[in-house]
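Ticket closed. Logging final result for Ig-like domain-containing protein.
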Amino acid sequence: MNIFLWTGLNKPTVTLQPSWTQIYSGETVTVRCEIQGGEGAQWTYEWRAAKLNTPPTSNEHRIIRATESDSGGYSCRGRRDNFFSEWSDIITLTVSCNSQHKTTEWSDSVTLTVSDNKPRPVLTVSPSWLSPGASVTLNCEVEHPSAGWSFYWYKAVPDLSEKSSSYELLPDGSGTAQDSYIIHGQTHTAGYVCRAGRGDPEYHTDHSQPKFVWSADVHSAASLTVSPDRVQHFTSDSVSLTCEGNFTEWRVRKFSEDGRLYSDCRRMTGSTCNINTSKSDTAVYWCESGSGEFSSAVNITVQNDGNGPILVSPVHPVTEGASVSLSCSLRTQKILSNVFFYHNDKLLQNDTRGELKISAVSKSDEGFYKCQYSGRESAQSWMSVKGDYSPVCCKCVLLFKDLVFSSIIGSLF
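Final structure:
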């Protein structure tokens, strides 16, 4: 039999449907042979690879659930009677077994943790005690920090009716990108709170616990006096903390050594809190008025050693140029001799005198003081020195003199 090549026809073309030459095992693909210019003719088809030639008459072959054995080159030609077209160019199909049923590998897992409780950020304040001209830095820390948090900064305003505080947004304190906030010009005791938010709509954390920056300086709006006027006390001493100012409602607040904040005095009579001291009363104390004012703050230290001495030193800062006397006292003996006094752990005097007198206090006298008697040391207390007041604040000078005079009178009794 004679076989003839049919000229005048375009070379057949092999196409894939879908047109991916890279497929995965389990996918379906159709291989099709197309002859441009041969429309209307009755063609049969031959294929390479040979396994597609059953039956040999179709112009397409459907590969269902492809396997790696279906990989290879595919070409075709057409036949009509004794006439054949050219062979098509080879198209290569690759079947990969790395994935099945049109699925990729599983990704690495990502763990999502959903907590029932709102997070509560932790606010820190630095410094804790104010000094003239110093700025106050607030830092707000969220547990498991991540990008996207905005921070909100508030001033705590006493609310005596609720035995708590309300919060007022600080200037430019809404939605800052930074987790810190700096306050300039703070002169009085104050409380602060922060919280954080993220997302759209924004999800907010709880408010932090309030943190305080304390001022020891007495000012005219509100003040706290201590009787007896000294920092250190023995256990079971009777100590009175009195809030003073033009306000009708007060509360005394206490920040203890273990970091707990107390809002109520156990025995409050009018504006005076009366304490029968125990070791747990070692703390920072201040007054808050019903109008939102804060008083100066004072340190109270309770001596737990019943046989040890205490240092008798003023509660409030001493004005530069004023005189001050420090002494050492036992529970059973108020006036002692042969006492050693230390300033910042440096021995100041060692003689028969029982008190340390500073006739004109200067800033260099500021620091920690303690006394030693019969081999036993008191706790150390900080004595703060403030600058002399200018004439525009003569009322402050008079107030301080009144406090010193009251302290002298009190010591006589």
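The two ends are 143 Å apart (CA to CA). No further action required.
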